[in-house]
Amino acid sequence: MQDFEGYIEWLKKLNWINEGECIYVVSDMLELAKTYRANGRHLDLDELIDGLQDMVGKTGTLLFPTFNWDFCKGIDFDYCKTPGRTGALSKAAMRRSDFTRTEHPIYSFAVWGAHAAELIDDKSIDSFGKGTIFEKMYDWDAKAIAIGIPALHGVTYVHHVEQMVGVPYRYNKEFTAGYTDADGKYEKRTYRMYVRDLVMDPQYNDGFQPLADQMHDKGLIRTEYYDKVQCHVMRIKDVDDAVRRDIIENDSRNLYTYNHISVK
């Protein structure tokens, strides 16, 4: 990139993100940081987040996953101190004073914008399914943007569809551990997660790539490259429909391979 153009300037030209939209951002910043360094530049994650805010405007909403699965191991969750495990960009959003983390100890988000108050108020004990933030994404016709990763690799919404449909290779399991809230109050809490049936042993089919390829062929996923950095955008409703169809009509073959007998 001889005439260096920053990522946000490049992204704006694609017209993928519009004012007032709800955007779910999944990312891996490694390749983007390498591209900046190769051009003698420093990747400022706050500038990137500022740019996304500018694109959706005051009537839009941004969600960055700040997931952490330690609660499932019985490890206490601290709202203010437990880190997210979903990449550098999400961690940067979580550190900002204009973003607020939602309460779920497993599937929390750093959120900002018009719908932030409703997201922060979410009290669901389920990770996915009715009443969760993932259902709100569908209701608000959100888009997912994947930066530096294959299209569906980080789009956890897939598991929400699995729970809504009811797949044979997952089931709801309760987890209990200590929870320290934003005010420092400690108590024991129980949350549910739609976990894998270890006997059926579902294994990701190349990170859902067969389904992503089908969606791309139908124009449901748009892909461009910023130098070597892959970038994808898709409507959550299109993801929902594609995953739902694959579960019901194709026995989830574009999502997983798994044993078809369970002893659970």
Poorly predicted sequence stretches spanning 5 or more consecutive residues:
none
* Fraction in helix: 25-40%
Kindly provide the radius of gyration, computed on alpha-carbon positions and rounded to a whole number of angstroms.
19 Å
- Helical element count? 9
How can the largest sheet be summarized?
7 strands, mixed
Name the average pLDDT: 96
Order of helices and strands: HEHHEEHEEHHEHEEEHEEHE
Label the structural class.
Answer: alpha/beta
Instruction: Give the tally of β-strands.
Output: 12
N-to-C terminal Cα separation, in Å?
Answer: 54 Å
How much of the sequence lies in strands comes to 15-25%
Overall shape: globular
Assembly state (oligomeric): single chain
Strand order of the largest sheet: 4-5-2-1-6-11-10
Describe what is shown at a glance:
This protein has 264 residues and is α/β, with parallel strands linked by helices.
General description of the model:
The protein has 9 helices and 12 strands. It has 264 residues and is an alpha/beta fold. It has a domain of 181 residues. Helix 1 packs parallel to helix 3.
Topology at a glance:
Blueprint: H1 7-14, E1 22-27, H2 30-38, H3 45-56, E2 61-65, E3 77-78, H4 88-95, E4 100-101, E5 109-113, H5 116-120, H6 133-139, E6 143-147, H7 157-165, E7 170-180, E8 186-196, E9 203-204, H8 209-217, E10 221-226, E11 229-235, H9 236-250, E12 256-257
Parallel strand pairs: 1-2, 1-6, 3-7
Antiparallel strand pairs: 2-5, 4-5, 6-11, 7-8, 9-12, 10-11
Helix pairs in contact: 1-3, 7-9
Key terms:
globular; 24% strand; single chain; alpha/beta; three-stranded mixed β-sheet; 9 helices; 264 residues
